[in-house]
Amino acid sequence: MPLLVTVDLFSGRENPSFVIGDDESRTILSNLEANQSRLAELPRPSVLGYRGFRVTHIAGQNRQAPDFFTASGPEESYQVYDLPDIEKQLMELSGQALRDDNLQALLSSEFERTSRTGWADTLAGPKVKCPPCNAADAPAYDPAFWNTPARQPHNNCYNYANNQATNTFAQPGRATGKPITALSCKGVQPSAQSDGLKPCANFSGSLKAGQGWYVALVIWPGRDYHWYRQDNVGCWSHKPGQTAARNTDSSGNQITDPKTCDRGPYIDFCTYMITNHSVTIK
Fold this sequence. Notes:
Blueprint: E1 3-7, E2 17-20, H1 22-34, H2 36-41, E3 53-57, E4 70-72, E5 75-80, H3 84-92, H4 96-99, H5 103-117, H6 143-146, H7 157-161, H8 185-195, E6 198-200, E7 213-220, E8 224-230, E9 236-238, E10 268-275
Antiparallel strand pairs: 1-2, 1-3, 3-5, 4-5, 6-10, 7-8, 7-10, 8-9
């Protein structure tokens, strides 16, 4: 009963995955089954950065997924987090998948960070007064549209910021032949501009109908990028990778400005930008 294990880690890039074979998977499945009641009680973390492991049963002929696995489209999967022994075991079984680009060391540091802070950040923070929205075309916050099995796994933060569900896990510059050159502000911003986004100093200027809405680019240095967008209520929202669209930051607070909100490891704020309905992404 082989298992596909995906590290829920990035927002713009595809998450790293690896397969563990029958012998190792038996131990993992046994440990998961022993902890299923505890996992069922934990809210799924809504932070930027490390969010646990997703363990997916690879169905074989005449094989059934264990009863404790939850249906996820055509597959069966289980989210593993806040279980240090199992998480460390999965990391040890990752092989080359996490050794490349020092991902194993990165995951160790992220695991320690989230273990210290826990998952209390998933709780909603206090209501805030949203800033004015000066963009006539700003989208409404509509998580029900994005958080469906048909869209959520296939669209990332760049799709969400541009309000285009292409189901391609869109990458800046891919549609216009100018791919990202580095996971830095200078490496990502030109690719977004190639797609049609325009940098701006802030989000206070008036944008009439047809002129677009405000988004913002931030960077996890050398690792990943992330995008936010301003909704028509004035506050901001985002969609970290394959996870659900949300209007709160990594501390559970509404986002009045992506430059000052809790962004987890995405510590570099690059720029505000303007996107519009004519922008091409892929």
